Amino acid sequence: MSHTVLKHQLFRNEPEARTSQLLCCPKCLIRLNAYEAHYACSHCKGQYPILDGIVDLRESDAAYFCEFERGAMHHLLEESPDALEKAIDGLLRQTEANSRLGEYIVGEGRAGWKFLLPIREAATVLDLGCGWGGIAHSLAKSCGDVIAMDSTMERMRFLKQRANRDGLNNLNCVCSGDGNQLPFANETFDIIIINGVLEWVPSGRKGDPGAIQKAFLGEVRRVLRDNGTLFLGIENRYSWKTWFRQPDGHTGLRYVPWLPRRLADLYSQFHGRGSYRNYLYGRAQYQTLLEEVGFQESSFYVPLPGYDHPSKMVPLSDNDRLRQSVIRPEKSSLKRFRQSVKASLTARFPDAYGIVTNNPGAPPSFLDSFCEFLAEKIPRHFSNRPEVTDYRINGEMGMVTVILADGGNGDHARSVLKLPLHSRSDQDVKREADNLTLIQEQRHPYGKLRSSIPSAVGCDDYEGQTYALFSYIRGHDGDIYSRKRGRRELAIDEASKFAMKMHVESKHAFAESTSTPCELVHNCAKQVLTIAATSGQAKSLELLVDKLSAQLSNRPTDLVLGHGDFKLANCIFDPATGYLNGVIDWGAGLRPELPLFDLSFLIVDACSQMAGKSLPNELESWISGEWLYPEMHRILAKYAKTLNLTFDDEDIQILGAYQWLKRMTPLADGYESRRFDYRYVDSMFQAILPE
């Protein structure tokens, strides 16, 4: 992904004095002058120190909002920027923090909604109350100047170190937030982000919380350009989960948001939580509040499952899509009924909103302008401007996937647009486009299967953002059958037939390959070793690799071209017949692989869901030789016979151990947010402990 490179850097700590281009005095809103170690106001004579290139505009440094104690944060900041991820992992383990906190700190998926905004290389962006700065970090890859502002200096220093390491010279940090005015001139920013912040603004301030929030939004409107855009991520006061006794995320008390404000305040004080000041609102109330401070046009989205870790962005007005996005496949009629009720409640009373507010004359969103671009660039593929029918965010993979429908052909002509969020996913999507282009060639080993494989329509760069467009395979992904026994077995059988054809066609491609199964094992092991947290884990890995290498050496076999991520979720089935329509997501494919790996990868996932077991427990049963699913064993044996391979209980152990390595390898990547889920990582290492 191309990053914006600025000709100047706004907040350089240079020896000579200079005038800041954006900053104003937080007291009198006069432009600040920059000196070697501080900023100064020529009007009120106020001085504001600079620490590690970050100006401190706070009235007091006493306030500290962070998931870790101050001493622990200072220790973290002493680490080398190149070792930040490893230091974060160590701190999470030391404090036994929530396993999702690592993703919250460095994950790119939290800003996955950014393509709904008018992001462009010339845009100036302000992220208010940015916290650890994950959203600002992502926006800096798509926009011009990005200012991240938070009142906790330690988190600002962390973000600054991370930005410097990653070469994001256009991401600048300001420590501020305890004053009544934003320290910027009128009409400074094109885009302002307020994600999970508005409800906290009244904390520690005197006065009516609602009036304080309104005044804050008035300040936001002041520093936003007349044709600017505001993104507001916040909970819904009337979330349906409150009915079912889910505690409020701000006070820890049930029912508080629903209560009248005065009663909520008394209730909070009675339980020793202090005055209730974290005001939330409903859709109409948010609309009114925004209009009262000058915002005129607002579009409401529902971030699912929540605004802090969204995996989908669904327009609030699309009730059918909201319901379908929530429903999961269940076995019993009672559970299916509960899913139906949950879906209806979510459509009517969602947990949270993502509100995009555009002032008149605001540029179109990235996605809107991109759809116009596609209609002009690929008229043979789109007879009219394409329309968005689904918007998905995969935070772990760092990918936004958008389903587009041809506006002139209704719902029947669709395409899949992929927008990577970081450099690794950027490489993945380009590799997938290259792979699918190769497959569509008649001479490729998979050429005979191309009717069941998407084609690459285009892969290029738009406004500094890499994109790839693929054809769409109609049907349901196989996850919908994961809890329906009869349909599940049919789906796995259909997928196994595809795997047989795929590997029979490609087996000869590596008949004389210099790669060997043992080399595949050792290449994975080198990467997995980097995430071993203890010497015991490293030793367990060494023993696993030695045993696996010995087993593979005694079973010479030709390699095949693998899919790399072969699972029911990537297999698309005809909803009427249950037959396989195609296989998607080829970014990890067309690489040398063990013949049985793809199919066993799918079966491990399916068996884990069937038995309600965790993935580490399922793999442990394979590695230990205790695995026993007769129907799945039959499918694997049939596949092995088709490829003239031996297949016995030892092969189950080999496949389990090799799968463990392949599933752990991505966690060694610095962009993989799940690497910070230390409980998951430890449970995976527990699965290979010698008896």
From TrEMBL:
Where in this chain does the entry annotate a coiled-coil region?
none
Q: Which Gene3D superfamilies match?
A: 3.90.1200.10, Vaccinia Virus protein VP39
Q: What are this entry's molecular-function GO terms?
A: S-adenosylmethionine-dependent methyltransferase activity
Q: Which residues does the UniProt record annotate as the domain Methyltransferase type?
A: 126-231
The record places domain Aminoglycoside phosphotransferase at 412-608
Q: From what superkingdom does this record's organism come?
A: Bacteria
Q: Which InterPro entries match?
A: Aminoglycoside_PTrfase (IPR002575), Kinase-like_dom_sf (IPR011009), Methyltransf_11 (IPR013216), SAM-dependent_MTases_sf (IPR029063)
Q: What is this protein called?
A: Methyltransferase type 11 domain-containing protein
